Structures are given as structure tokens and as C-alpha cells.
Amino acid sequence: MTTKAIWTDQIKIAFELFVLPPYLTQHLLNFSSRTFIMLRWLCKIIMKLTGWKVDENVPKEIKKCIVIAAPHTSNWDFWYAMAAFKIYRLKIRFTVKKEWMKFPFSLLMKPLGGIGIDRSPKIASEGRISYTDAMINLFKENKDLVIIFTPEGTRSKVEKWKTGFYHVAVGAGVPICVAYCDYKRKMAGIAKVIFPTDYQKDMREIMSFYQGITAKFPENFSVDREFVSN
User: Fold this and answer.
1) DSSP three-state, residue 1
2) What is the pLDDT of residues 79-89, one digit of tens each?
3) Residues 117-137 pLDDT 10s
């Protein structure tokens, strides 16, 4: 499913909740499609005016993947990354508790890219499934799915990253796209794709890449020291 189609489905759901007349719904959908195109061009203009460039290494053939984004030391990271993803025409999703995907919260969460995590057991006598297994299930249930992770988990400096994204990628059989915002080169986007095979080797490759990236506030950024050669 294309990004435009996904966006259209989300708008349809929102409008149906208000039971709008079909002709009015279609008019608004046409407007939203034009808005999406305009938003993409606006992102291009903003990146150009601010002197930023978009990394062109994004693979067009990948429909399912996990995107890890770092460094995360400023709120500006989000805007530059989102601008890059819009230019890619990449529909980024983020996970929230399933309760947040119900009305009225769904009116905001769905257009933003939220996708609900359901950890309920299939059999009542069993315990809740793990977050990792719930994530793997999402990939099994969706034909096209790109989920973003921020492995640092905070804008403060941490030397131990959350590595659950790797185990989800292995379990779901999907690649890991390495995204970044480099404030020294003014470059943002996806730099490389890793198909997980060896945990230690792959994590060292990821950390080696991020060691060469300059954060907005370098003093607040560190890679996971466990995977850095002394």
C-alpha cells in the first residue's frame, strides 16, 4: 500500500466517525491528498533554506523494516528526521498502548502514525505476551510496516541503549534501517540497512556508524559502550 493510500484510509476513518455526507468526505479526501503533496514540497523547501540535505541511501524496495533514530539530544532531531521521511514518502509508525488507538484519541494518533500494541494473551489462562512478541505480531499482521525506535530512550546522555529493536527485527525477519541527524554535516535520513545475522557484529557496526555522527548537543550523546572496541 502506498503512503498516499495509507493516509487516505486514515482520513476516511476519522471522517466516518462524524458520519459526514459521502460527497463532502470525498471532497476533503481530495484536499488531503493535495495537502500531503504540498507538505512534502514544504519539507524540501525548509531543508534547503536551512542548509540541510537528505541522505539518499533509503532503499525503495523495503516495505517492512525497523528504523532506529539517533542521536536524540534535542527536539529539533524530530523535525529534521520527519522532514527527511516525508521527502522519502516513507510512512513512519510508532507504537502506543492499544487503548490510545480508541476514540477519541484515535482521531489524533492515527493520522500521526500511531499503531496500537496488544499484549493480551490469546488464552485467558496464559500471561501477557512480551513487548517484543507483540511487536513481532504487528509485523506478521501488516503487509507494509515501518516502525521507528529511539534506542537511547531519552535526550539525556546514556551509555546503555535499549536493544529490543534488534530482537524484534530478528523475530519478525525484517531489516534495520539506521537513521540519523548529523548537525556537523547538516545531513539527515537513512544511512544504511542492516539485515541482522550476528548480534555482536551488527551492534558494533551500528555503534561504529553513530560514533561518526555529531549531535545537536554532543555532550549529551553516547553510543552503547558495550559494543565499542577499546
Assistant:
1) coil
2) 898 889 888 88
3) 887 776 766 778 888 998 999
According to the model, what pLDDT value does residue 185 have? 96
Residue given cell 491528498 in the structure block: 33
The residues facing 190 across adjacent strands are: 179
DSSP, residue by residue, 112-172:
HTEEEE----SSTTSPPPPHHHHHHHHHHH-SSEEEEE-TT-SSS--SS---HHHHHHHHH
Domain residue limits at 129 = 52-227
Structural domains of the chain, count: 1
What is the per-residue burial (b if ≥16 Cβ within 10 Å, else e) of 62-97? eebbbbbbbbbbbeebeebbbbbbbbbebbbbebbe
| Residue type, position 146, single letter | V
Q: Is 182 a member of any domain? A: yes
